[in-house]
Design goal:
The chain is mainly β. The chain has a single domain (about 30-175), classed as Sandwich (Immunoglobulin-like). About 10% of the residues lie in helices and about 35% in strands. The protein has 1 helix and 13 strands, in the order αβββββββββββββ. The strands form 3 sheets. Strands 1, 5, 6, 8, 9, 10, 11, 12 and 13 form a 9-stranded antiparallel beta sheet that branches. It has a two-stranded antiparallel ribbon with strand order 2-3. A two-stranded antiparallel ribbon has the order 4-7.
């Protein structure tokens, strides 16, 4: 699913210059398609406070207003492409529980994707169908859908979350591919 984002930027700049439009894309803006290569499984708690082995106060790993799952999840691989019209294709491998009595299993979960473009609140959740797609026994999944609402042209800080359809908690995140310059 990889594409040459650098070529897309150069082509857009050249076309804009040729047509006398100046620079069509601000330097800080992300250029569609947005690419994600690799995934990070959720660790529900980011830190704890307390002297004994059980923390008295914990900081949940909330990402852009979205709550984490209650258990650790791992993911072997993830690749995703988001087009400017909202079309999204996600290919995930090995999304499984990373702890608890059902470690190494898929928890019979279904997942959907959320793209958040804003770095600070208010956040807009652009979702695929929240019914989700079921995880295979080995944790593999594929999403081919359209985000609603459609992402804006200035998705300056893209964050892609894979979420459990049952409780809407995030279980994995895509690693954004840096645009080539």
């Amino acid at each position: 699913m990889k594409r040459n984002a650098g070529f897309t930027v150069v082509l857009a700049l050249a076309l804009g210059a040729f047509l006398g439009l100046g620079s069509p894309v601000p330097a800080e803006a992300q250029v569609f398609p947005l690419l994600f290569d690799g995934g990070i499984g959720v660790i529900p708690v980011s830190s704890g406070v307390g002297q004994d082995p059980t923390a008295e106060v914990v900081n949940r790993n909330i990402v852009r207003g979205v709550q984490p799952a209650g258990q650790i999840w791992v993911i072997s691989d993830l690749s995703a492409v988001v087009e400017g019209d909202g079309r999204i294709r996600v290919d995930g491998r090995g999304l499984l529980l990373g702890g608890g009595n059902n470690i190494g299993r898929n928890a019979n979960a279904s997942v959907f994707a959320t793209l958040i473009c804003e770095a600070t609140p208010p956040f807009t959740e652009r979702n695929t169908d929240a019914t989700g797609v079921p995880l295979e026994a080995n944790g593999d999944f594929r999403i081919d859908d359209v985000l609603t609402p459609t992402p804006s042209a200035d998705c300056a800080s893209p964050t892609l979350l894979i979420r459990n359809a049952g409780n809407r908690a995030w279980v994995a995140a895509g690693i954004p591919e840096a645009p080539e310059m």
